[in-house]
Amino acid sequence: MDVFLLSLVLVFAIALGGRDTLVMAGLADRLGRVRLLLATGVVCAALSAGLMAWLGATFAAMLPYRAAQMLVAFALGVAALELALPLRVKTPAEPTRSLGAIALVLLARQIGDAARFVVFALAALAHFPALSALGGGIAGAGALSVGWFLGASDMARLRPALSRRILAACLFVAAIMLGLNARDGSL
Predict the structure, then answer these.
(1) What pTM was estimated for this model as a whole?
(2) What total number of domains does the chain contain?
(3) Domain carrying residue 44
């Protein structure tokens, strides 16, 4: 249950200012707040969280314990780096109404983002990685729902750049601590 709650809180906090949420907000402004658009985003959030949890659990199962800890530290470091990079999101001038194309764009944004790397890391450490996927999927869907509801102009008021930098620093410290612990097992 701890993994579920940790995944739920972390992924929501990270994904709220993420590229996929900002894309969803822009699409909701341009296309209207169509429920099928939101449903597509929810399905994409569930698929990406499930895939990353499966990958994390699979890779961790192949490694010895300390190497799996180092893998988690590396995943958190990649998440911190992705959060530290500046956001540059462009909503197409004439976005497509094809839900398949929108789903591909959202999945492409989600697979390599910081929130899904956190799901990967938590699943690699968890005894039940499905809880990490469940928490990450619900939180990702919740963040996309906030973007869909608020739209691009209101999302800009949340100042995602500042929160992303703070979260990047926290994840970087966590990655360093886990990496040091995996290296000599003293922490």
Answers:
(1) 0.88
(2) 1
(3) 2-184
One-character DSSP codes across the chain: -HHHHHHHHHHHHHHTTSHHHHHHHHHHHHH---HHHHHHHHHHHHHHHHHHHHHHHHHHHHS-HHHHHHHHHHHHHHHHHHHHSPP-----SS----HHHHHHHHHHHHHTSHHHHHHHHHHHH-SSHHHHHHHHHHHHHHHHHHHHHHHHHHHHHT-HHHHHHHHHHHHHHHHHHHHHHHHHS--
pLDDT in tens, 152-162: 888 888 877 88
The first and second tokens of residue 73, run together, are: 């530290």
Side chain identity at residue 91, one-letter code? T
Residues in the chain: 187
How far is Cα 148 from Cα 108, in angstroms, rounded to an integer? 18
pLDDT the model gives residue 187 = 52
